[in-house]
Amino acid sequence: MSNKRIVSGLGVTFITLFAASCTVPLLVQKDVNKAVPASYNNSLDSTNTGQSRWRDYFTDANLTALIDTALYNNQELNVTLQEIQIANNEVFARSGAYRPFVGLGGGAGIDKVSRYTSQGASDEISEIKPGVPTPAVLPNFYFGATASWEVDIWHKLRNAKKAAVASYLASIEGKNFQVTNLVAEIANSYYELLALDTQLDIIQRNLVILNNALSITKQEKEAAKVTELAVRRFEAEVSKTQSLQYEIQQKIVEAENRINFLVGRFPQHVQRNSQSFSELVPPRIQAGIPSQLLANRPDIRQAEWNLEAAKLDISVAKANFYPSLNLRGFLGVMSYSPLYLLNTPQALVASLAGDLVGPIVNKNDITARYKSANAKQIQTVYNYQKTVLNAYIEVANQLSNIDNLSKKYDAKNNQVQALTQSTNISLKLFTSARADYMEVLLTQRDVLEARMELIETRMQQMHALINTYRALGGGWK
């Protein structure tokens, strides 16, 4: 067979093998649907409270001081910041992967070859210099620079870097979402603490009223106007209210320590002013339009960056089916004696080699990685759409909650005013023996419950406003 036919056959075989290596399984990627409803409750007002800074939304100086402290000291947030640094380091590492690697080094060795090999027979008849035969055991010393470079033909390495950048940006948005939740959690706990303080004050004032009624009942018993039963019932009501007082006091301790944990400090008093909580006017909130969620909500932007990273991971996995070109080189000096390493150009040595390699047989590993990357891309699409849907529903629920809580507060306030008046009336009737002691007890119990529920409703209103602000994407700026 002639050399021409051999070369031709090798060329056909080479082309066939590389064509086989470039065969990529056909997989279908899923497109993301970013459509959202046009409005909330048919309102097209684009003014959005979620775009305001948290310092402008929360005006209580004690609350803003707590949030400031938490943004520096919260342990979970600081852990997330380190995760962002790790993601940034990954970007730095990927950016160097498609550049040449150059190293500098040297070494020494010793070599003994058989005289019955071609090299050994050649060494036996040769001389390293005139009159000095080549020794059977030959040392070797070298020093120089080595270089290697994977030529990024299919942009595999560049896409890997872009994927790392997208993951890094996703981690930043994840941190922003954590800040949003942290601000909302501190604000909710703070207003819960104010509500508990107000409820404790109501209970203490109610205890004064009950103790006065108990004194009157004892006097009435001495005058034989009521029996011992009435005295005992009033005493039981006083004890019941005292037990409620201790329960609220424990809740205050737990609320304070929940805030202390969020701001990263050991238990201590939380500075606050609870006196005006009952007269607190909930601020007005404007929801804007749903499409603004895509830009305002950090969790949606995080899902979007994860989607971008997943698409790039598919390109990286797909490039593994194609041949890769690797170049290697060495430039330095080499000699059997270190004394001759500086003798140039005789001691100079250089090499340059290139490998073009593609997978042919048993591509299960890269096929599995490619399919997994495709499945992850589909998964990120579903996660993105779920995040958008969840964001819209959160806002819709909270807007409805704000409206219903406002109506509930007005109704409760009317109930409290009516019961307060009935309490005064029942006490006057009781002292004039025109009402039974049970009417006083039941009326007093009803007004206490109504006042506690009124404060609870005010707290729920503040929570609804804070949660709406968070749902709109506010709190991280």
TrEMBL record:
PROSITE patterns, alphabetized: PROKAR_LIPOPROTEIN
Keyword Transcription on entry: no
Membrane topology: Lipid-anchor
Protein origin, superkingdom: Bacteria
SUPFAM superfamilies: Outer membrane efflux proteins (OEP)
Keyword Nucleotide-binding in record: no
Molecular function terms from GO: efflux transmembrane transporter activity
GO cellular component terms, semicolon-separated: plasma membrane
Coiled coil: 395-458
Cell compartments where the protein resides: Cell membrane
Main localization (coarse): membrane
Sorted UniProt keywords: Coiled coil, Lipoprotein, Membrane, Palmitate, Transmembrane, Transmembrane beta strand
Similarity field: Belongs to the outer membrane factor (OMF) (TC 1.B.17) family.
Name of this protein: Efflux transporter outer membrane subunit
Source lineage: Bacteria, Pseudomonadati, Bacteroidota, Cytophagia, Cytophagales
